[in-house]
Each structure stands twice: as structure tokens, then as C-alpha cells.
Amino acid sequence: MREIVVGAAQMGPNQKSDTREAVVARMLSLLDQARDRGCTLLVYPELALTTFFPRWYMEDQAEVDTWFESEMPNAATAPLFQRARDYGIAISFGYAEKTPEGQYFNTQILTDREANIIGKYRKVHLPGHSEYDTERAFQHLEKRYFEPGDLGFPVWRTQDALVGMAVCNDRRWPETYRVMGLQGVELIVLGYNTPSVNSQMSKEGLAERLYHSELSMTSGAYQNATWVVGVAKCGDEDGHPLMAGSMIVDPNGFVVARAETEGDELITHACDMDLSVFGKETIFDFDRHRRIEHYGLITSQTGVVRPE
Ligand code: CDT
């Protein structure tokens, strides 16, 4: 059996005033728990090291830069890499990346069990807006602070499996899963920071938000016969609630582990990679059943064009 014991390290809130060191201390505690439960891969959320800073409008680039990491590992995260290496646990987490060329991305990395970074993914689907929006209950300025990812949706071979990554809003787009599905992906790991209410429609509350998140991940898993692990940063960040709902979804689209709290919480599952084989060889055997002659609009057109 090709098994990866996956841990989803849901994190409670990071306040604006929290230092990277304080956050990493909590990540280390989750790593200790993951070791006790036999994990070989531990997944943390999007922007794990900081608060979800795109809710704050900033004009001073020097201030914006304080939320970004210009190298990884760095002084604050070195203890996490060191302990992951000691335990032989691969890790994946999200952070705001500033490149040496001065580009800014919403990034997630994947290591092997020796803590070498073997994969990097940069968020493709950036939600929100780039200028201050007076119509919203709160801001979501990802389009202001990040560029769309430039690495596509690669898949890496590690721990005898094919593993891909996505970040938050990416999980709502079927293209995300399908591009990795076409590379044979067996496990997709993703982190998210999702506000508990819709900033543009206050009556859309927590229940709907949790439902849409689950719907997106379970359908992506089923339609591509892959494991999906979604990990939240959640709880109240400086008065702004983020939803929880971290889960591990099997290749048939069933939730096999689910977080129960809105704080630091580890959920785990021994994921059999071979569970994806049946779906990939039958109903979702892309080679036999896909009809690409009818899919051209998906890559030639971005928005909706209605007939006259
Ligand atoms: N972080 C992130 O991508 N959050 C979005 C919120 C969308 S509302 C502008 C999400 O899809 O969960």
C-alpha cells in the first residue's frame, strides 16, 4: 500500500501584533502532535506566519513589506524546518513571498521528509480588489499586494505519490484540480483564510461559507479521483472572524476527517494513495472519456459571452 499519513494543522488566529516567533512556536507544537500521531506530511494554512494582512489597506510599501518573507527558510522558520527534519515529517505551509527581483506572491511550499523544499506554488486565483472599497464591510486586498502566480499548477513526485498544491480561493475553481488531475495528481494540499461572512452580502454567513468550501473540495476530489486536504487559519483575527472547517477528503469525495474547533487543532488520516486508482481508471479515465474538441472556450475566453 502507498500510504501517506497526512496531518492537517489547522491554526487559530494570528493577531497583527503576534511575532513570527510566537506563531512558529504554535506550529512546532502542532508538529510535535503530528509526530505523536505518526504523520509523514503536515499541512499548515495559507499565510500561516502572519495575520491575514490583505484585510488592511496600506499605501506605504515599506509597511507592506513587513508582512513578506524574502527568504525561506529564514531565521524565524528555521526551527520549524529543523524539527521537521528531526522527525522525518514533510511540511507544507503558506506565506507571503517577496522575490529577489521584487515580485510579490501568495505562496505555499512543500518539503520532503528531510526538510528540503521540493515544491513551490504561487496562488493563481487572487480574489478581492486592489483599491479601497467603501461598499464592503471589510477589505480583501489580495489584488493590491500580490501578483497572480506564475508557476502554474505543478505536481511533484514525493513519498511514492504525486502531490500538488493550491491556495485558498484556488479551491473554488475546477480548473485548479483538473490541471493537476491531468498530471495524475493523487494528493492536493491547500491552505485557506476565509472570512466567516461575505463582505459584500452580510446575510451569507458561516453555514453557507462552510458548505461552499466543502462542496468545492469534495467535488474537486471526486472529479479527479484525488485526495484533497484543506487547512484553515481561523478564529478571530483582530475582530475579523475567519471560518474553520479544515478537512481531509478521499478520492471518492467523502470527508474522512474534519476539524471541530476554531483554534489550533490537528486532524490526521492515513491516506492510501491507491484509493485514487479506481476512479482514474474508470469513470474519470481522462484519456478515454474527455472531449477536448469541446473545451476550447475554457482556455480561449476568460469571462462570459452570451449569445445575442
Ligand atoms: N484567502 C482567500 O482566498 N479567501 C477567499 C475569500 C474570498 S472573498 C473575497 C476564499 O475564497 O476563501
TrEMBL record:
Pfam families reported in the protein's UniProt record: CN_hydrolase
Signal peptide: none
SUPFAM superfamilies, sorted: Carbon-nitrogen hydrolase
Superkingdom field: Bacteria
Domain (CN hydrolase) ranges: 4-275
Coiled-coil region: none
Listed InterPro entries: Aliph_Amidase/BUP (IPR050345), C-N_Hydrolase (IPR003010), C-N_Hydrolase_sf (IPR036526)
GO molecular function: hydrolase activity
Keywords: Hydrolase
CDD domains, alphabetized: DCase
Name listed for the protein in its UniProt record: N-carbamoyl-D-amino-acid hydrolase
